Amino acid sequence: MILPIVAYGHPVLRKVCDDITPDYPNLKELIANMWETMYGSNGVGLAAPQVNRPIRLFVVDSLQIIEGLEEDEKKDYPDDKGVKAVFINAHIVATDGDEWDYNEGCLSIPKVREDVSRPESLTIRYVDEHFQPQERTFNGITARVIFHEYDHIDGKLFIDHLKPLKRRMLKGKLENITKGKISVDYKMVFPK
């Protein structure tokens, strides 16, 4: 089932989310719905707060980005094979490498894209959908997508990484999103 995506301005997007246990109600169904919602809105990642659940859960499919790169672009990310994975109770252990800019967008902040600077790689500890402990290092575009989704479960948004002047320039667009004055091809829930 496709779930509505929470729009910028909704308080759940600013909440530091809670860890969950394997007995979280309807978890398997929620994960399936998040995948369907993400693909239905042409996303590459989706965090639980974006579907109004304040829990430390997100899904990522960076395989579709890596597979879509031209051959000459793939050389820019030689170690990035992409990943399709569920991240539960994730906590970043370490970051590494130089910061680099990449143009990011967000399903909760539609029609706004900006260059964001993030480190090249991250090591993250989490449990998968079977609650099996994982600790992996990701780099390149995959790391970027994970950083972005991880921010969501910590109550942050990609626009928080922008310089104050750039954020002020976006103020009108952000207010329009909050007021529901935007048209998208997926279901959204706007703040009241």
Question: What does the model show?
Answer:
- The protein has helices at residues 27-40, 63-68, 71-74, 140-153, 164-169, 171-178; strands at 5-6, 45-47, 57-61, 84-106, 109-127, 133-139, 188-189.
- It has one domain: Alpha-Beta Complex (Peptide Deformylase), CATH 3.90.45.10.
- With 192 residues, it is an alpha+beta fold.
- The relative contact order is 0.21.
- The strands form two sheets. The chain has a five-stranded antiparallel sheet, with helices on both faces. A two-stranded parallel sheet has the order 1-7.
- The two termini are 24 Å apart.
- The radius of gyration is 16 Å and the shape is globular.
Q: What is the general shape?
A: globular
Secondary-structure element series: EHEEHHEEEHHHE
How far apart lie the N and C ends?
24 Å
Count of beta strands: 7
Q: Which stretches are low in confidence, meaning pLDDT under 50 for 5 or more residues running?
A: none
CATH superfamily label: Peptide deformylase
Give the helix tally: 6
Structural class label: alpha+beta
**Count of discrete structural domains:** 1
Strand content: 25-35%
Largest sheet: 5 strands, antiparallel
> What's the pLDDT, averaged over the residues?
95
Catalytic activity: N-terminal N-formyl-L-methionyl-[peptide] + H2O = N-terminal L-methionyl-[peptide] + formate
Cofactor: Fe(2+)
Function: Removes the formyl group from the N-terminal Met of newly synthesized proteins. Requires at least a dipeptide for an efficient rate of reaction. N-terminal L-methionine is a prerequisite for activity but the enzyme has broad specificity at other positions.
EC number: 3.5.1.88
